[in-house]
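Design job #97: recover the sequence.
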């Protein structure tokens, strides 16, 4: 596997896991939320991160892969810096 694919996949997984944790926290903070809602948000998020990580690792061209990584980094910065 090419080095850029490994780096892009790792960077996306790191950002994706942060986004999953933020999504789980938001699910927990909703009114009348149950623990099953938090688990569901986590599992759906992890499934999406897993599928996109496989696409980055094996199929997407470099421009698309790095675009997704950049969008994820922007999303993480925006969500974690929001007040």
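Job complete. Output follows.
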């Amino acid at each position: 596997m090419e080095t850029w694919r490994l780096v892009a996949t790792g960077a996306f997984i790191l950002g994706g896991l942060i986004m999953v944790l933020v999504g789980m926290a938001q699910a927990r903070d909703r009114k009348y939320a149950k623990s099953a809602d938090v688990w569901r948000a986590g599992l759906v998020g992890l499934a999406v991160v897993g599928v996109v990580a496989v696409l980055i690792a094996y199929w997407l061209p470099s421009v698309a892969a790095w675009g997704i990584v950049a969008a994820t980094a922007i999303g993480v910065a925006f969500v974690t810096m929001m007040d």
